[in-house]
Amino acid sequence: MSLDVSPALLARAVDGDVSDEEFVACVRESLPYAWQVISGVVADLGSGDFADDATPPPTEAERGQLLRALASDAIRGGLERHFGVTLAFQNCHRVAAFRPSAVDGQRYRRFVSPRGQLLNQSPELRDC
Fold it and tell me: Which Pfam families would you find in this protein's record (predicted)?
Protein backbone atom coordinates (compact mmCIF):
# COMPACT_ATOMS: atom_id res chain seq x y z
CA MET A 1 0.00 0.00 0.00
CA SER A 2 1.13 3.52 -0.68
CA LEU A 3 -0.21 5.13 2.50
CA ASP A 4 -0.87 4.10 6.08
CA VAL A 5 -4.41 5.43 6.53
CA SER A 6 -5.79 5.67 10.04
CA PRO A 7 -9.26 4.23 10.64
CA ALA A 8 -10.53 7.73 11.47
CA LEU A 9 -9.22 9.20 8.20
CA LEU A 10 -10.58 6.26 6.24
CA ALA A 11 -14.01 6.74 7.85
CA ARG A 12 -13.99 10.44 6.88
CA ALA A 13 -13.03 9.50 3.32
CA VAL A 14 -15.92 7.01 3.18
CA ASP A 15 -18.31 9.73 4.38
CA GLY A 16 -17.01 12.40 1.96
CA ASP A 17 -14.00 14.44 1.04
CA VAL A 18 -11.03 14.95 3.33
CA SER A 19 -9.07 18.17 3.53
CA ASP A 20 -5.72 18.66 1.84
CA GLU A 21 -4.22 19.17 5.30
CA GLU A 22 -5.43 15.74 6.47
CA PHE A 23 -4.27 14.09 3.27
CA VAL A 24 -0.83 15.73 3.32
CA ALA A 25 -0.39 14.77 6.99
CA CYS A 26 -1.11 11.15 6.03
CA VAL A 27 1.46 11.37 3.21
CA ARG A 28 4.07 12.93 5.55
CA GLU A 29 3.58 10.14 8.11
CA SER A 30 3.39 7.31 5.56
CA LEU A 31 6.25 8.33 3.27
CA PRO A 32 8.82 10.04 5.53
CA TYR A 33 11.75 9.67 3.16
CA ALA A 34 9.81 11.08 0.21
CA TRP A 35 8.59 13.92 2.45
CA GLN A 36 12.17 14.65 3.53
CA VAL A 37 13.47 14.78 -0.04
CA ILE A 38 10.61 16.87 -1.41
CA SER A 39 10.52 19.31 1.50
CA GLY A 40 14.31 19.65 1.20
CA VAL A 41 14.09 20.46 -2.50
CA VAL A 42 11.39 23.03 -1.77
CA ALA A 43 13.56 24.58 0.95
CA ASP A 44 16.49 24.71 -1.49
CA LEU A 45 14.25 26.54 -3.95
CA GLY A 46 14.35 29.60 -1.70
CA SER A 47 13.65 32.64 -3.85
CA GLY A 48 14.71 30.92 -7.07
CA ASP A 49 12.64 29.18 -9.73
CA PHE A 50 14.31 25.74 -9.67
CA ALA A 51 15.95 23.31 -7.26
CA ASP A 52 16.60 19.59 -7.47
CA ASP A 53 18.04 16.62 -5.60
CA ALA A 54 19.65 13.73 -7.46
CA THR A 55 20.93 11.82 -4.44
CA PRO A 56 20.15 8.12 -4.78
CA PRO A 57 18.01 6.81 -1.92
CA PRO A 58 19.92 4.69 0.58
CA THR A 59 17.57 1.70 0.19
CA GLU A 60 15.05 0.32 -2.26
CA ALA A 61 12.29 0.91 0.30
CA GLU A 62 13.10 4.62 0.28
CA ARG A 63 13.26 4.64 -3.54
CA GLY A 64 9.81 3.07 -3.44
CA GLN A 65 8.55 5.94 -1.30
CA LEU A 66 9.65 8.46 -3.93
CA LEU A 67 8.06 6.40 -6.68
CA ARG A 68 4.76 6.15 -4.80
CA ALA A 69 4.73 9.85 -3.93
CA LEU A 70 5.50 11.11 -7.40
CA ALA A 71 3.67 8.50 -9.49
CA SER A 72 0.34 9.06 -7.76
CA ASP A 73 -1.59 11.99 -9.18
CA ALA A 74 -3.37 12.49 -5.84
CA ILE A 75 -0.21 12.39 -3.72
CA ARG A 76 1.86 14.49 -6.10
CA GLY A 77 -0.96 17.01 -6.50
CA GLY A 78 -1.42 17.25 -2.73
CA LEU A 79 2.29 17.88 -2.25
CA GLU A 80 2.35 20.47 -5.03
CA ARG A 81 -0.62 22.33 -3.51
CA HIS A 82 0.87 22.11 -0.01
CA PHE A 83 4.27 23.47 -1.03
CA GLY A 84 3.03 25.79 -3.81
CA VAL A 85 5.35 24.29 -6.43
CA THR A 86 5.31 22.08 -9.49
CA LEU A 87 7.27 18.87 -9.03
CA ALA A 88 9.18 17.01 -11.74
CA PHE A 89 10.80 13.60 -11.53
CA GLN A 90 13.49 11.66 -13.44
CA ASN A 91 15.28 8.33 -13.04
CA CYS A 92 13.49 6.99 -9.97
CA HIS A 93 15.10 9.54 -7.68
CA ARG A 94 15.88 12.93 -9.24
CA VAL A 95 13.26 15.26 -7.80
CA ALA A 96 12.91 18.87 -8.90
CA ALA A 97 10.71 21.71 -7.74
CA PHE A 98 9.75 24.63 -9.92
CA ARG A 99 7.82 27.76 -9.13
CA PRO A 100 4.50 27.60 -11.01
CA SER A 101 5.54 30.73 -12.90
CA ALA A 102 8.59 28.85 -14.24
CA VAL A 103 6.62 25.94 -15.71
CA ASP A 104 6.42 27.63 -19.10
CA GLY A 105 10.14 28.39 -18.98
CA GLN A 106 12.99 26.80 -20.85
CA ARG A 107 14.55 25.10 -17.81
CA TYR A 108 11.31 23.28 -16.95
CA ARG A 109 10.70 22.25 -20.58
CA ARG A 110 14.29 20.92 -20.79
CA PHE A 111 13.93 18.99 -17.52
CA VAL A 112 10.69 17.23 -18.50
CA SER A 113 11.62 16.62 -22.14
CA PRO A 114 12.60 13.24 -23.59
CA ARG A 115 16.01 14.77 -24.35
CA GLY A 116 16.38 15.81 -20.70
CA GLN A 117 15.58 12.29 -19.58
CA LEU A 118 18.07 10.78 -22.01
CA LEU A 119 20.82 13.22 -21.06
CA ASN A 120 20.30 12.36 -17.39
CA GLN A 121 21.08 8.68 -17.96
CA SER A 122 24.24 7.08 -16.69
CA PRO A 123 25.26 3.52 -15.78
CA GLU A 124 24.87 4.41 -12.09
CA LEU A 125 21.22 5.37 -12.61
CA ARG A 126 20.12 2.41 -14.71
CA ASP A 127 19.45 0.16 -11.72
CA CYS A 128 16.17 1.90 -11.10
Answer: KH_NucS_shadow
pLDDT tens, 9-41?
999 999 998 999 999 999 999 999 999 999 999
What is the residue-wise DSSP string for 32-43?
Answer: HHHHHHHHHHHH
Tell me how many helices (H) and strands (E) the chain has: 7, 3
Q: Are 97 and 50 in contact (CB under 8 A)?
A: yes
Nearest to 65 by CA among 45, 86, 46, 39: 39
pLDDT class of 126 with cuts at 50, 70, 90:
low
* Residues 2-18: b if buried by 16+ CB within 10 A, e if exposed: bbebeeebeeeeeeeee
